Amino acid sequence: MEYRKLGNSGTAVSAYALGTMTFGAESDETESHAVLSDYAAAGGNLIDTADVYTAGASETIIGSWLARNPAERDTMVLASKGRFPMGEGVNDLGLSRRHLRRALEASLTRLGVDHIDLYQVHSWDPVTPLEETLGFLDEAVRSGKISYYGFSNYTGWQLTKAALTARARGFSQPVTLQPQYNLLVREIEAEIVPAALDAGMGLLPWSPLGGGWLTGKYKRDTSPTGKTRLGEDPQRGMEAWDKRNSDERTWRIVDTVVEIAGQRDVSPSRVALAWLAAKPAVTSVILGARTQQQLADNLGATSLTLSAGEMTQLDTVSVPTFSDYPYGTPGIEQRSRSIDGGR
């Protein structure tokens, strides 16, 4: 397992994190504990969860595993998130000082720990003043309840504003951003990746396999069935079958991933994960394995390094579509120049 700095902090984390959104929903406690143990045995040390995952069940399951494996508490870097509703009250959501205090205390209780290593705000809150949110996070760091904080699902301007506001106010600095990022979804490279690099923040990409599309298990124009995410819910969120199946770009990317996987004698999942782990600013790729078998296959990416040619092949086939300005080729050319000058 490769280890990297957690953003601009001094803490080392594995290049592949364990996402636990399925715990308590698609994976029961027994299966979840087995996945956690396998992940730890492979050298993984970053566990990502959130209070809203299965209404707190994910954190509770992790807490029970830590209670049974107390030595792992000193090894694991725990990451959780707060922001989304955990009740019906008007103040049971958001990034207010009031809600975050209660959310953090509840997460600590469910996890059975006295501090969380990385506490992330799950999404931007247009209602709460940014200074209020950052002030709470700074206090949580200073009180020892969290070691670091980060953001999730922020846009480029939101990330930059938050990082600069924290610096101007003398608050502790954010260390990470958790965005959606994979071969099918690369739009964050236009603004969010540069903003993260500028702020010295590391990326913790979620949905690295595009909701299962990059595993190669789906076939063109053949509606998925069975116990897969799209088999159970073809219109599931952003990875809905009809939308992606009708986009030729989807199949060009999938076919290229499958082709490279065949040439390297590895699974398509490993190719997609290795591509993402090699991208700029990426600290740790979040694996969302539901079973031990899925986790074992995904962890195989730890020993796979794609060649420069393979990276270029994947970059080329998956290049996102932008208008000429400001993110297309003409816009990029106007934002760069040669040090030698000239026309």
Question: How would you portray this structure in words?
Answer:
It is a single chain. The protein is of the alpha/beta class and 343 residues long. The protein is 40% helix and 12% strand. It contains 13 helices and 10 strands. The strands form 2 sheets. An 8-stranded parallel beta sheet has the order 9-8-7-6-5-4-3-10. Strands 1-2 form a two-stranded antiparallel ribbon. The longest helix has 17 residues, at 248-264.
Question: In short, what is this structure?
Answer:
The protein is α/β, with parallel strands linked by helices and 343 residues long.
The shape, in one word, is globular
Distance between the termini: 48 Å
Individual helix count: 13
- Strand residue percentage: 5-15%
Output mean pLDDT.
94
Oligomer: single chain
| Cα-atom radius of gyration | 20 Å
Question: Which structural traits does this protein have?
Answer:
343 residues; alpha/beta; 12% strand
How would you summarize the topology of this molecule?
Blueprint (H helix, E strand, L loop, with lengths): L2 E3 L6 E3 L1 E4 L9 H13 L4 E3 L8 H12 L8 E6 L14 H15 L4 E6 L8 H14 L2 E7 L3 H14 L6 E3 L13 H8 L2 E2 L25 H4 L8 H5 L2 H17 L3 H10 L7 E3 L4 H8 L8 H10 L11 H6 L9
Parallel strand pairs: 3-4, 3-10, 4-5, 5-6, 6-7, 7-8, 8-9
Antiparallel strand pairs: 1-2
Helix pairs in contact: 1-11, 2-3, 4-5, 5-6, 9-10, 9-12
